[in-house]
Each structure stands twice: as structure tokens, then as C-alpha cells.
Amino acid sequence: MTEHADPVTTPYRPRATLRDVAAMAGVSMKTVSRVVNGEGGVTPQKVDAVRLAISRLDYRPNVSASALRRSSRRTAAIGTVLEDLANPFSSALLRAVEDVANEKRVLILAGSVDEDQQRERALVRAFTERRVDGLIIAPVGEDQGYLRAEMEAGTPLVFVDRQPQGLLADCVLSDNEAGARDAVHRLAEAGHRRIAYLGDLAIIPTAQQRFAGYQRGLLERGLPLDPAHVVHDLHTVDDAARATTALLRSEDAPTALFASQNLVTIGAITALQDLGLEQRVALFGFDDFPMADLLKPRVSVIAQDPAAMGRAAAELLFERLDGERGRPRRILLPTTTVLRGSGEIPPGRP
Amino acid sequence: MTEHADPVTTPYRPRATLRDVAAMAGVSMKTVSRVVNGEGGVTPQKVDAVRLAISRLDYRPNVSASALRRSSRRTAAIGTVLEDLANPFSSALLRAVEDVANEKRVLILAGSVDEDQQRERALVRAFTERRVDGLIIAPVGEDQGYLRAEMEAGTPLVFVDRQPQGLLADCVLSDNEAGARDAVHRLAEAGHRRIAYLGDLAIIPTAQQRFAGYQRGLLERGLPLDPAHVVHDLHTVDDAARATTALLRSEDAPTALFASQNLVTIGAITALQDLGLEQRVALFGFDDFPMADLLKPRVSVIAQDPAAMGRAAAELLFERLDGERGRPRRILLPTTTVLRGSGEIPPGRP
DNA sequence: CGGGCGTCTGACAACCTTGTCAGGGGAGTC
DNA sequence: GACTCCCCTGACAAGGTTGTCAGACGCCCG
């Protein structure tokens, strides 16, 4: 009477194969295959015998072996290459992909690239060596041409968040430029004329687009672009906090801040709180974050919808897998402007 | 001169196989295999010929076919079954697993179960049908006995966050009870005698442990357990906010709150802010969250370390894969008490 | 010059599954 | 009773790879 399996003493029992099931049921392997795949053309008695053997042996079909032999050669798995599985943007996106894939009974291989081009290639290679049916990629490199071979081999590709370079393929993007532009407009409407830009690494395409939106917003409002109010290459909370502090202590300090990314926004808030200026300096962030409406003041943001991006990307991918052969499609998802308070603070005295 | 590959016109070029490489290089398939796997025993000229053919054909070894044939039968992939890939706890844990797996050049299949027992089983089944080398599971069901067959088939299992039922296996847990107990002690030290418990679904083992810790904390401080101050089964921010509001409006309202989980903590904060009581009612949360130290007051929490859990789980798993045959191990990770302010508010007037 | 040894190579089987095809058996037709 | 037709079943090959083994080749020894 062993209540619990004990790995020390548990006998090793190799997994049953189709052959074992066939032997136990007294039929040929093909007949077992027919039952497993619901092909029909098997007498009820044999079906029962096979079913019984399957449950007695706890048989699990070997999907790899099956995919190898099947004419479609589908593995029912897709690869997802994202920036960092631990960050809220990537993980919300991944989860949405999972939900769509789940309906199709497709599994997900996932990996993080951490802004590393090498890692992007390594992951793609590892995934294709496993013959995934398709790939969803948030590209980091400057050139995705190396993926052409994958497309030619029939593996559909969908890019998310950033456009691929040197390759035409389906992609799903946020309208970064329009979002950033709108943030600047809102700040201008509140009366600000000195709006600073706090940006992520300038090599990141989305950061470039947000910066372009910032510039366009200023231009459209007839506001000058002051180089002293532009900071690039902030990639951590601390970077952002330091840069914000420096800006606000400078001569001719800005009266409003546009933070081009999640962590930058948080850094800016940290700095504002440290300086006791959070109620005096306006702040608009790009990317929503969980606690934004519990802070004081509540934080106004340009929100992306990572789940919608993931869903859209997965749907494009599955359409390709279902045979869609049209030209590459580009889905541009609008951002949402969420006014919560911090972006509506008017300019105060110097 | 086509700058870009165009899926409309791109010719379909099936993936090259070992056979193709062998044909192009004018050697046998086995020789190609030797080169690919660095087996040696091949003359330099042939190695070069093979290398050339490989790069010309852009050959990618088929890992599934290889695993099928290899005596170790390793697929270099592990499955990770977590609560919800989008929540910060799961995603931090997953990321840590990924980092360990990455060093071993092992890929990750991931899926969410959403507290659904069926889904747990379906995912495990799907993963084992792909013959993953091992599984990391945050179990939801009341019985994991169904996994015994996997262990017997030689697939190592490591459980995280929650202990498996009906099965002895490696697991990595947070010391939930000690953490909750400590929160109660801290609140008691601040002078509170009416400390409410706001808990997640009572069927969740970790919630039970935290409740046990709460009870023990009260007992050790000689405080009464008031059933009117205990609320279970709060699973969303809204649930938690409503329950908190009701508690604080009741006769004999508590002067301190212990929120047993992330979302519950956030709901409690929302309610406190709505009632304007955030500076008067003490609050301790279980699980840290990103903005906890930007809120006012800053939120004191019992912090778990999901990354450490993921790392530990992955390490246990890889030790098993490296041949470790000892008894099941149980790693209990301590929690950290983070005092930020909200937990140190003294009891005020009614 | 036959034999032995070590190195390198390729033919072939095997892994687990599915697709093809032909054969066996029973029912129905003339 | 001979024939066709259909249904069911199993033998066999194939998918991409690796492991086994025997053979080829060059070399040295007696």
C-alpha cells in the first residue's frame, strides 16, 4: 500500500509506444494509429481493445514522431521571441498569444532577448531547429533579412511592437508617433511651453517614433524644440530619476515632462517625489502601468494595449497557417490617452 | 534585384535535410551527422565540403528527428505550467527559469492554468506528448497523483509555490505562514488589536498557509480572532475593494488590515483612498509590487522572491536531469518583511 | 607478401509514427 | 456459382536523424 510514489524506489517504466499498445491489443500498429487519430474504418471491438490497452499502458502519442511522419509536418507549436518575459508589456502580450494559440491547441515556446541581437538570432535558430509552425518576434536587431530563409521554408513570421528591417512580413505595431504627439498636445493645451522629453535608448525604433511624435507635437503647436530639454538613452528607473532631477534643477527648467516609456515614467515620478514637485510639474507617460491611478497625483499616460497586440499577431499568424497567401499586412493599433491628473497640471511659477 | 523577399512571389523552398547536405557534399549521411555533432573522425577536406554544403543549403538539423533517434532521447526543452503568464509573480518566475535553462541551451514551453485543474492536466499532457525533458509546475488541482506515470517514465518534476498533493516530488515554496505571522506581529507591535484578514480563494493552499500564519500571529500576541474581521475568497481588485469598504464601515471596524495577496492589497488601497483613510488605517500586504514605494503612504509588504523560486526550481530540475537520484527535496524560501510606512501607522481614534 | 592494427567511412537498421496499398472476407448481383 | 464491390486490416515504406558494424585504406611487422 504505497500512498505516495517514491522516486528513490519507484521502478523506471519506460513510456509505452504505439508498438506496445498494438501488441497488447492484438492488432497492427496502423490500427492503433487509426483509433488514436479518429480515422474510422475500425470495428467497434477493435476500437475497444485499443482503448483499453491505451489506458492500461497510459500511452501518450509522441507528437514529434508524429509530426515527422505527417504530411503537413506541423508540430503544433509556435515560437515567441520577446524583449523580456518578466516585463509587463511582454508578458501581457505573451499571455494574449497563448490564449489564441490555446484555442487552436497549439503550444508556445517563449524566450527573452534583452535587446541583444545575438540572442534574437540564437532563439530563432533554436525554435526553427524544433520546426515550430510559426514565429512571433519583437525584433531587436537592425536587420531581419536573415529570416528570409525561414519564410521561404514556409514558416510564417509575424513581427510585433517593432517593424522588421530588410524583410517584408506581417507586423503589428502601436501608433507610437501619434501617441507621443497627443501627449505633447495635451500638455500644450494645459498651457505648457517648456515640455521635456525623457527617452529610452535612441537605437530602439519605437523610441525614435515616440521622439518623432514629440517633435511633431511641438511643431504643430508652434513650440520650440529646446535641445536642453531632450534626454535620450534612459533605460532604467535610476537613469531616468537622475536625468529628471538634473533637468528640474537646471536653469530654465521644464514645466512638463513627457516620459517615453514605463520605467522612465517611474524614474521621473521618483525624482518628482524626492523634489516635492509632483503636484507642480506636469507628467505624461508612455505605457500604462498597474498602479498609475493609485499614485498622487494620478498619472496620465498614453496607453498601449499589449494584449491586443498579442492577439492580433497570433491571429495574423494563424491565418497564414490556415493558408492565407496575400501580401504582408501591417496592423497599426491606436494608443489610448488616459487623463488621470498628472498631465493636466498647469504650469506654475518658476 | 529584389531588395526584399516578397511572400507573394517568393518561391517555396523546402528545408534542406541531412540527405540533401550529404548529396551536395558527396559523402554519406552519417558523415554529415558526424560533422554536425562534432564527433571527429572525419578528414579535413570532407569536413570542409560538408560545412560548405550546410551553409549553401542553410541546413538546420531537425532536433525532433534527432531526439527521436538519440539514445538519451532528450529534446532539450522543458515545460513550465504556471498560474498566469501575465501576472508579475508567474512572469518573474518564468524569466528566472528561462535564464537557468538558457545556460543549458534548453528551451521553454510555457502555459497558464488560471486556477483550472482541467487546464493543468491538459497542459501537462500536451507537454509530455512533446516529450519535454522535465516539468516545472505550480499546481492548482487537489491531487497531483496523476503525475506519477510521468515520474516513472523518467520525466523529472519540480513543483513551485504550492506543494503537490498525493505525490512526493521536489518542490520550492515560500514560507507563507512565517511571512503572514510576521506581518501580524508588526501590526501588533504598532499597537493594533483589531487586525483584519483579507484573503484570496480559501481553496488555494498558499492562502490557507497565510491564514494559518495570521491566526498564529494573533495567538502569539494574545489577540482574539474575530470572525467578523476575516474575509476569504477575494480574487479580484474589485472584490477586495468592496470587502475592505464594508469592513471599515462596520461597527467595531479594524484599525489594521492584512491583505494576503497582491491584487487584494491593491483593492484595499483603492478602498482606503476612496474613504480617505489611507493615513489612518494600517496596511500590510503579502507580495511586493512595483509601485509600492511610490504610493502615499508607502506600502509595507511581506515580499516573496519569485525569481529566486524560479531559479531554485530550475536548478533542482537540472540536477535531476544530470542524474541526481536522491529523495525528493523541499526548499523553503524565507520571505522578506519590507517596512515602508503603511504597516507602521498606529491605531487612531475610531 | 600475408597479416594485423588503427583510422576513417558508408550501408543499414532503428527510433515512433503515418500514408499507401494490396489482400482477405463478406455481402450483393447476374 | 462466379463476379464485383466494399469494408476492414495489416505489411511495408517513409520521414530525418543517429548508432552499429563491417569494410576500405594506409601502414608496419615478421
Automatic annotation (TrEMBL), chains A, B:
PANTHER family: HTH-TYPE TRANSCRIPTIONAL REGULATOR GALS (PTHR30146:SF109), LACI-RELATED TRANSCRIPTIONAL REPRESSOR (PTHR30146). It comes from Jiangella rhizosphaerae. This is LacI family transcriptional regulator. Residues 16-70 form the HTH lacI-type domain. Pfam families: LacI (PF00356), Peripla_BP_3 (PF13377). Keywords: DNA-binding, Transcription, Transcription regulation. Transmembrane segments: none annotated. GO terms for molecular function: DNA-binding transcription factor activity; transcription cis-regulatory region binding. InterPro entries: HTH_LacI (IPR000843), LacI/GalR-like_sensor (IPR046335), Lambda_DNA-bd_dom_sf (IPR010982), Peripla_BP_I (IPR028082). SUPFAM superfamilies: lambda repressor-like DNA-binding domains, Periplasmic binding protein-like I.
